[in-house]
Amino acid sequence: MKFSELLQQLELEVEIQEQHSLLEHPSCDPELLGLSAIEEAASGTLSYIEGGRFASQIQTTAASAVILPVDAKLQNQASQRQIAWISSPTPKLLFAKAVRQFYQPFQPAPGVHPTAIIHPTATLGSDVSIGAYCVIQANVTLGERVCLHPQVVIYPDVSIGERTLLHSGAVIHERTQIGADCVIHSGAVIGAEGFGFVPAAESWVKLEQSGRAVLEDRVEVGCNATVDRPAVGETRIGAGSKLDNLVHVGHNCQISPNCILAAQVGMAGGAKAGGWVILGGQTGVANQTEIGERVQAGAKAGLHGKIAPGSIMMGNPASPYRTFLKASALYNRLPELHQSLRQMQQQMAELQQQIQALEAAAQPETNHEI
Amino acid sequence: MKFSELLQQLELEVEIQEQHSLLEHPSCDPELLGLSAIEEAASGTLSYIEGGRFASQIQTTAASAVILPVDAKLQNQASQRQIAWISSPTPKLLFAKAVRQFYQPFQPAPGVHPTAIIHPTATLGSDVSIGAYCVIQANVTLGERVCLHPQVVIYPDVSIGERTLLHSGAVIHERTQIGADCVIHSGAVIGAEGFGFVPAAESWVKLEQSGRAVLEDRVEVGCNATVDRPAVGETRIGAGSKLDNLVHVGHNCQISPNCILAAQVGMAGGAKAGGWVILGGQTGVANQTEIGERVQAGAKAGLHGKIAPGSIMMGNPASPYRTFLKASALYNRLPELHQSLRQMQQQMAELQQQIQALEAAAQPETNHEI
Amino acid sequence: MKFSELLQQLELEVEIQEQHSLLEHPSCDPELLGLSAIEEAASGTLSYIEGGRFASQIQTTAASAVILPVDAKLQNQASQRQIAWISSPTPKLLFAKAVRQFYQPFQPAPGVHPTAIIHPTATLGSDVSIGAYCVIQANVTLGERVCLHPQVVIYPDVSIGERTLLHSGAVIHERTQIGADCVIHSGAVIGAEGFGFVPAAESWVKLEQSGRAVLEDRVEVGCNATVDRPAVGETRIGAGSKLDNLVHVGHNCQISPNCILAAQVGMAGGAKAGGWVILGGQTGVANQTEIGERVQAGAKAGLHGKIAPGSIMMGNPASPYRTFLKASALYNRLPELHQSLRQMQQQMAELQQQIQALEAAAQPETNHEI
Questions:
Q1: How close C169 gets to chain A, by Cα (Å)?
Q2: Residue contact A300–C323, C-beta within 8 A
Q3: Hey, are the CB atoms on A233 and B36 less than 8 Å from each other?
Q4: Domain count, chain C
Q5: Would you say C362 and B354 are in contact if contact means Cβ atoms under 8 Å apart?
Q6: Hey, which residues 271-300 in chain A have their CB within 8 Å of chain C?
Q7: Pairs of CB atoms within 8 A across A/C
Q8: Of C85, C102, C119, which one is at a domain's C-terminal end?
Q9: Residues B302, B245: one domain?
Q10: What average pLDDT score do residues C40-45 get?
Q11: What whole-number distance in Å separates Cα of residue C68 and Cα of residue C47?
Q12: In this predicted complex, what is the ipTM?
């Protein structure tokens, strides 16, 4: 497709502030065959530059068209190199929209594979796609156009909203409710028993987990991630929240809409996250933690207690990032600080001796005067 | 069921010290329809209060009956609000027993699904339940009432004890021995090859893993957790130990009975844990670590070497928790300490000058005296 | 097999410097029945001693034959105890070769199970083994002697090289390329969508992941590990690299040959690792990190930025290990340092007073002299 055709197909009203005049450079309307990362782009591809880090790539990239930030210097450099371009305050967002013009993810056609085992009490919406060897148990409800790749297992009493997609190896446990337009990736387990054991004299007594997991609309759960159900009540993940691979969400957690949990994050039982919270990879959240809205945690942070809205937290136990960055910079200098301290102790001892000498020198004189 | 009926069905001899007199408040024998968390309880439900944190909820909860700790104030508050109650030194434990009167987890009926593929050399105990698309390979032995949900795969030469439950997506590798009354959750992989590679000049040489994994009775393994087998010998998890989701137990680990490994804990090859060890979420245990009995590690701890029995450890590398708490409190004050140190260095320099001045002042006098 | 027969079957030219003379001790050619770890060896087994840690076991082990390092003391001790032995500069490597003489891992015979569902456009090499309930989708190519254990799912357009082994529960997503002689363990997910979401005003917009994951020859991916594909371009894992259980490799990561990623390591999007990098368990690598060749990171390290080749890194944020070890040793002494600092502040104040007193004492005299 021509670059100009692509631009017509994107909804550009909102986010584009400036636009390269194609008429002035008719040679700059390349035929685009695909997409590429800016640093490994081939001729005939569309790429994008988001921030400063990759800006210098405009000098060398072989991409034929680039989505740029609103930056006159970059625009000039692109024009000089005969690269077609368009500017946006959010280049990556525009690129995300452009990707869909070139690439549609693989999705099986509607239909139920003959090897799928579907309980007679299950209710299937129109145009569902159910792959080979799926197992759908009693009282399950699937909305319109729900798609199960092969080998998905759904336990009884589960409901799944319209257009939600489940990848091979996903397992959805009893009573789970999943909204519309969700994606459950391969190996993810939703609604399994929370980790509830009560100590007794001889061993641990199991607390049965009678609650359920609820995923609102547009939630994504990464590969091999786990979202547990609680003993009583709900574990809930708000609309539009996205969980990366190998994330663990414990029983009774309450995650508000539009949160991002990067890979290998763990949230212990009863932790709460406000809207738009972003947790970096391998972050741990202690049980009953209350994370305010729009909190961000750096990778490997350890959160506990109450975290004020908008905080940016780092470290374990986590601190506001400025505190953490100052402290961690000094951490490596601890040996030096220690050394300074010891030197000062020695100097101090010397000073004390000198002063005693001075005092002694002053004292006899005083004595002599008596 | 009436509250009074519930109390009759629980075995209350041991753990209950005090009991609300139902005869005095006949209106306080509510019909109970279900269970709830204290802070979100609806009328007609039973809840519990364990510790101080949730104690204030007794003033507002809509629960009709509550299991309380032995606490006269809470008992009075409950009575005044016409909430039926019973006291126990271990309210959560009693609640765990009460839950079973209201809720039975979903379990398929005995029987072998026609799509299950079972090797002719496998031995099945009476009343086993084998779900759709399970694959059971050569020389596997399943005890009485073992239950496999759909899509469980068992490699050859595995034995599984009575009443053990395997959820969909679990994979049990060759030679694994699993005891009675265990639960293997969805996606857990038991007895796969340990991570054994030996460096050679050109690449890594695989050390074949000829050993086996052994799970004793009443072990639980969480969703997508992994327990590896070793090159030689055994990886062993003691009776009554519970592993949460996404836990990794490396080859040759020896975990004693009644240990708790919270989510995303990792134990490297050959690590040992004594009885009743509790490891917080995301804790890492270095290879060959020896963890004494009843050690507790806080979330994200990094354990190595020998840990004395009964220690409570935090941080990475882990320290006794008192040390860690004091040190981590000062960590954030490092910039302040650094500032103090620099101020003192300046003050010290000033003092040195003052003393030199005093000495110089004293010296001339001495000289003058000569 | 006799010890002497075993030695004949191993290729000993290269790595063995010294060899026990079997002729001198004909009684020292035991019949070997199996393998064992040195500390739990039974009579009739072969074991090995690698380093100093287990050296004392030579005094007590019941092993009948031992592979020793080149160490005259150990050799003498073994001879005195009538233990057959051979010395190698790399005992564990020789043991790895010996293991294969006693133990062959379970592998299904070639053949396609009648329940396997194979798309007509798939191409199967000779002697492939495809287990029960496997699903192989359109345009998949399997090389000669590829082995799929039961319940493996392969999405369309995947190619898998000769002799590669996939364990039950593995899921390979669209367009993935896997080389020869790889092992994909149970529950591993290769080539699923990278975690790509772009913030917009109302929620997160999905960046479709049109790229692919590429595993070169001899790569191993552990149980429940995940390797994502990128939006554009490739995620690549170099030949001979080994990933342990529950490892996460994000979109666009580039891992060079012969790297080792221990359990629960996470590499965020676009991170690069040079050849022979070794990352300890639970290490996290920030996005776009560039790790030089032969870098080693201790367990739980947090890597970011550029890491110079050959560095040994520890801590989070990671530092060269000498720096980290010194700093972490002082970390626990922070309360003591703080205490010293406060003492010195007090001493300093006292000195200041003393000096003022001395100055005052000197001053009046001077004044008196005026």
A1: 7
A2: no
A3: yes
A4: 3
A5: no
A6: 281-282, 299-300
A7: 203
A8: C102
A9: yes
A10: 91
A11: 9
A12: 0.93
What per-residue confidence (pLDDT) applies to A314? 97
Supply the range of the domain harboring residue B81: 3-102
Does residue B133 form part of some domain?
no
Query: Which tokens is C313 given?
Result: 């890194």
CB count, 10 Å around CB of A322?
11
Query: Three-class SS of residue C47?
Result: strand
pLDDT tens digits, A208-233: 999 999 999 999 999 999 999 999 99
Extract the tokens encoding A89: 């305050």
Among C40, C95, C338, beta carbon nearest to B233: C40
Same domain, C261 and C352: no
CB within 8 Å: A323 and B332: yes
Where residue C204 sits, what CATH number does that domain have?
2.160.10.10
By C-alpha distance, the chain A residue nearest B35 is A232
The model's pLDDT over B322-369, given as tens digits with 9 standing for 90+, comes to 999 999 889 989 999 999 999 988 988 888 888 888 888 876 555 554
- Of A6-20, A46-60, C162-176, C232-246, minimum mean pLDDT range: A6-20
Q: What is the pLDDT of residues C104-160, one digit of tens each?
A: 999 999 999 999 999 999 999 999 999 999 999 999 999 999 999 999 999 999 999
- Looking at the structure, tell me whether residues C312 and C183 fall in a common domain: yes
Whether C338 and C320 map to the same domain: the answer is no
Question: Which residues in chain A are closer than 8 Å to B169, comparing Cβ atoms?
Answer: 153, 169, 171, 187, 189
Has residue B139 been placed in a domain?
no
Q: Are B319 and B343 members of one domain?
A: no
In the block, residue with structure tokens 């003993």? A231
- Which string of b and e fits A274-289 if b means at least 16 CB within 10 Å? bbbbbbbbbbbbbbbb
Instruction: Using an 8 Å CB-CB cutoff, list chain C residues near B206.
Output: 96, 220
Alpha-carbon gap, residue C124 to C142, rounded angstroms: 5
Q: Are residues A68 and A204 in the same domain?
A: no
Here the CATH number for the domain that contains residue A51 is: 3.40.1390.10
Neighbouring CB atoms inside 10 A of A218's CB total 23
- For residue range A111-169, what is the model confidence (pLDDT) as tens digits? 999 999 999 999 999 999 999 999 999 999 999 999 999 999 999 999 999 999 999 99
Residue C274 resides in a domain: yes
Query: Is the CB of residue A40 less than 8 Å away from at least one CB of chain C?
Result: yes
Q: State pTM to two decimals.
A: 0.94
Same domain, yes or no: C246 and C365 = no
* Residue C84 belongs to a domain: yes
b vs e for C160-183, b when ≥16 Cβ sit within 10 Å of the residue's Cβ?
Answer: bbbbbbbbbbbbbbbbbbbbbbbb
A204 touches chain B (CB under 8 A): yes
- Shared-domain flag, residues A197 and A311: yes
Of the three residues C102, C121, C147, the one that is the final residue of a domain is C102
Residue B22 pLDDT level (bands cut at 50, 70, 90):
very low
Q: CA separation (Å) from C90 to B196, B205, B251, C307?
A: 15, 12, 21, 29
